[in-house]
Amino acid sequence: MFLVAPDIYADNYIDFLVDVCRTHRISALLSLNDLELPLIAQHAERLREVGTVPVVSSAEVIHLCSDKFRTSQFAESIGLSTPRSYATLQSAEQAIDAGEVSFPLVVKPRWGSASFGIFFVENREELRFAHAYCARIWKQSKFMRMGQPDGLVLVQEMISGQEYGLDIFNDLERRPVGLAVRKKLSMRAGETDRAITVESGPFSDMAARISHGLRHIGNVDCDVIERDGRYYLLEMNPRFGGGYPFSHIAGANLIRVLLSCLRGTYQGEEVRYQTGLELAKCDFLASVEPPVLQRQQSTEIALCDTQE
């Protein structure tokens, strides 16, 4: 069943969700949209009142994950490596002068999604230009509602190496359940396009620290990069991410785990999956012929995303 919803920032959006859940007796609700997560967390009690379990972390967890500077601070607080991060241009330039970091550097919105507004700069002139331009385009974007007017742009140390995606799953009581890891082979528009599943063992300590420290609910999709044998936490998304299908097809069926948690039948079964399985997303074009309108016909092209 499909329903046309209002814009997520429409005044009646939450009323719409609550009404749908009540009318159709929805047992649980989860979102894949970074912009929607804070709204569901804020109105979670209204959903519970109509018998729907909102599979969403607390507003504090969501804010921590969406704020990339706070994510960096969180990583350091639980003993994880993370790129050096600076919330102001002045602090970044002071760090450069002190020899704490060096070019190239990464400039990106402090709040954002899907690789929006990321720049790689090679010198101070580029840094200042990118910092100003990044702030400008962020203010004109849909992500403006996610952040705050001060400290819009983040400057980070650039870490080069092999990237990984981690699915770290907690139950509804925020207890660690399982972990699945994939090595990223190619990216597109901020999402994993090709990946191969790998052993989770080398990442188990990092996952345990995140699970216990963050105390999220359900899945958190983490971006990690390896340099010289050390793993650096880059970002956390408190939801199922675009790379989850790779884990799912490999056997790490976290949806089944979630359903067991919702039903109260989860018995602590280990999350297992096949390693060494390489997968890729593919696009195909489908021709769609609409009904004849005023004796004229046209053909529309729809872009679809599927799994191989």
Question: What is the gist of this entry?
Answer:
By secondary structure, the protein is α+β, with helices and mostly antiparallel strands. The protein contains 10 helices and 13 strands.
Fold and architecture overview:
The chain is of the alpha+beta class and 308 residues long. The protein has three domains: 13-56, no CATH class; 84-157, Dna Ligase, domain 1 (2-Layer Sandwich), CATH 3.30.1490.20; 162-281, ATP-grasp fold, B domain (D-amino Acid Aminotransferase, Chain A, domain 1), CATH 3.30.470. It is built from ten helices and 13 strands. The model is unreliable at 294-308 (pLDDT under 50).
CATH topology title of the largest domain: D-amino Acid Aminotransferase, Chain A, domain 1
**DSSP strand content:** 25-35%
CATH class value of the largest domain: Alpha Beta
Shape: globular
Radius of gyration: 21 Å
What strand line-up does the widest sheet have? 11-10-7-8-9-12-13
- Mean pLDDT across the residues is 90
- The tally of helices reads 10
Structural class: alpha+beta
CATH superfamily of the largest domain: ATP-grasp fold, B domain
Q: Secondary-structure blueprint of this entry?
A:
Layout: H1 13-23, E1 28-29, H2 37-42, H3 44-49, E2 53-54, H4 59-66, H5 68-77, E3 85-86, H6 89-97, E4 105-109, E5 119-121, H7 124-139, E6 153-157, E7 162-170, E8 176-188, E9 191-198, H8 204-214, E10 218-227, E11 230-237, H9 244-249, H10 254-263, E12 278-288, E13 300-307
Parallel strand pairs: 1-2
Antiparallel strand pairs: 3-6, 4-5, 4-6, 7-8, 7-10, 8-9, 9-12, 10-11, 12-13
